[in-house]
Amino acid sequence: MKYKSLLSMLMLGVLTACGGSGSSDSPSVSPPVNVPISSSDASLIATAVKNGSTAGLNVSHRALLLQQALLLAQRYQQQNNAALSDIYSGASLDLTLNLSKNSNLITPALSTIATPLMVSDEGRGMAAISQYGKGRGLAYGADVLAWMADQSKENQHFALFSRAFNWVVTGKAAGPLPATVKFATAGYDAKSVTKLLTRMGKTPQAQACDLAASTNSCWQDADVLFFGAGVKDDVELSRQVRKYLESGKAVIYMHPNWEDSAGGRKVLHAMGMELGGYGGNYFASTAGMSAGSQRTVSDALKQGDRLALLIQAISQMSSSLSLDLSKDTSSADAITAIQKELESLQSTGGDVFAEATADLHQLLVLWADLYRPDIEYGKINRSTQPAEFLRTYASDSWLAFNRANTTVARAGQGDFMPQAAQQLPVSSSAETIEVTIAQADGVTAVGRAAVPGKPVYIEVLASNGKLGVQSNYLRTWGNPLTDELSEGYKRPRHPQSFTLPLKAGGETVLVSPFGGPLYLNYAGAAAGQSVTLKIRGAARYSHFDFTKAQSDEDINEAVAALKRKDFGWQTAKFVGGEIQQTIHYANEAMGNLDPKVYIVDQIKGLLFDSNHIANGYSNMPMSANVATLCTQLGWTCDGPIHRAPGVQHFVGWIAACGYLCSGNPSDGFAGISGTGWGHAHELGHNTVQRVMHIELNGKGCLVECDNNILASAHMMRQYALTGIDNGHITDHPALYQYIVQNRQSGKSGEAQRADMENRLWGGDSQDPMRAVHFQLAFLYSKYRAKEAVPGMQASMDYFTLLTKADRLVSKNWEAGNKYGMSRYTNNTISNHELLYVLSSKIIGQDVRKIFAMYGLPLSQTALDSVADLKLPLAPEQFYALAQKKFNQVSSGKWLDLASATPAYPQ
């Protein structure tokens, strides 16, 4: 299709159905009704497209927009299917192909110009074709051209490849190709092209031409332009390739491996395609990267018809509908496919209303805007109102965030955002905001919010890496197709924005129909530095930022917003952690507490600080004992090596799994609590270090146990500071009972140790396993801190030193006695032996007898390494915490086990 202006397309007169040339398996849909469109309506719609705004349109234009979109979709379907039918019409084509793991995905990013040529048996893109202007394109996720040129593998694919090649060059799969084919290459081996053309019986003629240079004119002399992953990345590359296509050139791209290519992405972007993500097909199954022998021409044509289901969806949205959407998701899937195309366009800096190939998308976005104001979340039932449900689903999906205008659901956005948020004031003049960056790559709260329907303008004043902006940082947000029917359609289907790249110069605009906290997405940044932004059109809300100094005014304003509940979300930012939770959950978790106590003392002071102390992160000051011992041992215990390894995000709204779910972000159906063990448990999952993971013959203190050592340290510190004991179990009495049973077995030496290993580490009870690390902490308090009764601070000091040492061994290891590893030639040591040598060094005692008592096996290398330290030999002993006072570390008494096994105190 040659791209006309939308106005000229609309003014063709009476719109009639094109019919399309899809396969016989295409969904059956009614053709659009013949609808006359007045010149004034056509002009209004064209103006709306030009401005990216429905201003000037009214409810009556909804039907017109859908009808025009349906007509366009059918025209593109006809164009795309005609090309596929031509390529696949060859007799006796072998349709099998295996790209191998060393390949990548090639997927249409704009179905208006790109079409799948081949997909794998699992539906992953293998190759695609493109039509734009007078030109055509072809791309493969592997260097299939070189295979065909050398006849090295997959030679059965040559016939189909030849027809696709001919179609790209001549517009017809049967050719014929010119006798002499002039070609130029960029980032691709010209020798392979020469071999291929020679095999095809043509005379190759290579042209010396820098295709990536926007100033070159030599491209005009070539018949075919070949690009590969090695093409030079240039800011104008996509535009240049689009110019080649528009002028009628044939463009071919071959991706040779599973790796990324910045230049290759831009070539594919010009052809309406995108490259797969990290790893490509490296982790794919055979069915994920190949087409098997069962593939038929009918299959290929059906798989290539990307628009058939969209046509079906538009038709269903335009009429009454009787359909079980929980079982038949084909129309919803088609809506999602367009959503993904809109995301691909916007996330690469494209503007849907400035993109000539997105005329279909423009109409769909404007229709979504017109439909949205009347949506009432919570009142739409997918069983009894399937057409209304589908329309709402589409309105929630067809979004353009990088413009100045959108519409909002007047009744509010369900439990995502209250209606009151639409009236929040926004800044009329620009504010300068410094955003701290914790690591090289990540996402971090900006401290300002997008109000539903109001544009935010962002300018970068001081850059730090590659930057983007988005509203909200969510991992899960519900699914109206699968949520309980009793819940109805509770909230926007996709409430977070796409990530929009921030311009290097000038303002980037973001507008969301749903609003939400603004987040900076960054990559290749300098950790610990900052980005300076200039922002206007944003609102203040309940946000706390403890990564930098906060004024009383900032804190008081955040506290007031938390109490007002007029914005849907509350956020907090700490060193190593960030929170985004609904305003409802935040107030529920806070209860009757003063907001400052809840945010500062509980979430920061207990949840994050306890974890960071136990992990030895440098954002927490070292105690005097830790600092002294680090100096004595010659350890580097501060500085960049001990930075928190990443920002752990928590979201309180919806969990991806269970009630609380690990990951980053970690999410749950609850507000973030600083005193319960649940969030400490989840934070532990994402920060636990190897010295807490004890695995012996496939069993031991593994995942769900090792992270709970950190949760137990949190509970221990919490009780000492606040008197709150939530009863999180670290079962010292059960551990002691294992010791008693082991001693009563009558075994000795290695047999006795192995018996204890089987009892403790081979069992399923994790609570006594976790107690071992705390018994070592209590030994530290006795021998190094000289405490008669263990205290919380000294016990935490042990974990601080242990985790700091763990990092030093991993990142700064050196031979000798510095870390107690004199007999090791490198740092490849088992976790439990590392725990042994580091604990001996930290405690100042050789704890081999203690480790044997707990059934932990030690190699001669480990034993000799610690022997080289010439430390006193710690006798067998046990600190018996009072029954059911697992977190109250000063409640127990020491038991001497060297010659007897006394009863556990009651």
From TrEMBL:
Which interval of the chain is the signal sequence? 1-19
Task: For this UniProt record, give its keywords in alphabetical order, as a comma-separated list.
Answer: Signal
The UniProt entry, under Pfam families, shows:
IMPa_helical (PF18642), IMPa_N_2 (PF18650)
Q: Which InterPro entries match?
A: IMPa_helical, IMPa_N_2, Pep_M60_3, Peptidase_M60_dom
Q: Does the keyword Metal-binding apply?
A: no
Which residues does the UniProt record annotate as the domain Peptidase M60? Answer: 441-765
Quote the NCBIfam families the UniProt record gives: ImpA_fam_HExGH
Question: What protein name does the entry list?
Answer: Peptidase M60 domain-containing protein
Write the lineage as a comma-separated list.
Bacteria, Pseudomonadati, Pseudomonadota, Betaproteobacteria, Neisseriales
